[in-house]
């Protein structure tokens, strides 16, 4: 019988090849499972049981969070659940391979309290989108980034991977999202105009849609050497324009994604359609936005309830 370490390696190869998980996801699963296997100190899958799962959960719950080695704060419940999700996926794989071990369904995830959404007001969003005002290539690029994020609800990683040759004559754009899944997003006229103006100023040969603009020190850099923007760079661009727009809240590309979803729902879109446009595999993930539909229901109740009652 194969050892747990050998089975773990086979599992990681399975999720990379058959399931199409990204390299980063595979690395995360490897990290979580390594900590678990090192903790239980066994190489026999039959020795995974309720008792050592419980001991591992207690140990996890007492571990310091990232960069908190001198603090009393421990790993968040959400982070602890990442470990449990990895273990459950591994156990399901073992079951499919007819390897005797603990049933995956015996592991319950920790309850996580709902996190309040990071949102800005509609007026703040308008100021943010209007922040890049100049006609230089940097502001034109930043304007295109902001408009495209709000128009499509793209994840920042999806935005960074866009090619330069996207079809701006179409209102639709096919995106490869998490797990390699393809979905369609839609580009507004404002976003198309902003991207066209930005591309008209590009003189480089890079195939990436969004590239780093050289500063004064790098003006001699060859145009073909321009690199595509990474997630951190886009986050800095959004933060810079939020400050310029006078927004005191923390604004990230994900906040704009939140605004995309709440804008659709508050204007009458159904949650299943929003789920598809966001690329959520589970409707439960999209349901964090139900506060918007709840407000709509309150408004309907206030407007229509009890109008025929005589006082």
In short:
The chain has 311 residues and is mainly α. The protein is built from 13 helices and 2 strands. It has a two-stranded antiparallel ribbon with strand order 1-2.
What does this structure look like?
Residues 115-302 form the Tyr recombinase domain. It holds the Pfam family Phage_integrase. One of its GO terms (biological process) is DNA integration. With 311 residues, the protein is mainly α. The protein folds into 2 domains: 4-106, DNA polymerase, domain 1, CATH 1.10.150; 122-299, hpI Integrase, Chain A, CATH 1.10.443. The protein is built from 13 helices and 2 strands; from the N terminus they run H-H-H-H-H-H-H-E-E-H-H-H-H-H-H. The chain is globular. Residues 67-72 have low confidence and may be disordered.
């Amino acid at each position: 019988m194969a050892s747990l370490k050998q089975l773990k390696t086979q599992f990681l190869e399975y999720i990379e090849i058959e399931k199409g998980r990204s390299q980063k996801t595979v690395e995360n699963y490897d990290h979580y499972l390594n900590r678990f296997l090192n903790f239980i100190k066994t190489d026999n899958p039959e020795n995974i049981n309720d008792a050592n799962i419980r001991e591992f959960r207690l140990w996890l719950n007492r571990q310091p969070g990232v960069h908190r080695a001198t603090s009393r704060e421990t790993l968040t419940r959400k982070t602890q659940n990442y470990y449990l999700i990895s273990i459950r996926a591994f156990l399901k794989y073992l079951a499919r391979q007819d390897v005797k071990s603990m049933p995956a369904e015996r592991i319950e995830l920790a309850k996580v309290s709902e996190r309040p959404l990071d949102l800005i007001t509609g007026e703040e969003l308008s100021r943010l989108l209007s922040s890049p005002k100049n006609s230089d290539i940097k502001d034109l690029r930043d304007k295109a980034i902001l408009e495209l994020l709000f128009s499509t609800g793209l994840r920042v990683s999806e935005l960074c991977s866009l090619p330069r040759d996207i079809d701006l004559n179409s209102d639709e754009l096919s995106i490869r999202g998490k797990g390699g899944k393809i979905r369609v997003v839609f580009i507004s006229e404002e976003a198309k105009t902003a991207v066209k103006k930005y591309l008209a100023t590009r003189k480089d040969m890079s195939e990436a849609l969004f590239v780093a603009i050289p500063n004064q020190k790098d003006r001699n850099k060859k145009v073909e050497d321009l690199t595509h923007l990474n997630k951190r760079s886009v986050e800095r661009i959004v933060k810079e324009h939020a400050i310029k727009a006078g927004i005191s809240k923390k604004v990230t590309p994900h906040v704009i994604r939140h605004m995309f979803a709440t804008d659709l729902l508050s204007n009458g879109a159904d949650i299943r359609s929003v789920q598809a446009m966001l690329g959520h595999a589970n409707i439960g993930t999209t349901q964090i936005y139900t506060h918007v539909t709840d407000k709509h229901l309150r408004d309907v109740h206030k407007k229509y309830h009890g109008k025929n009652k005589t006082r």
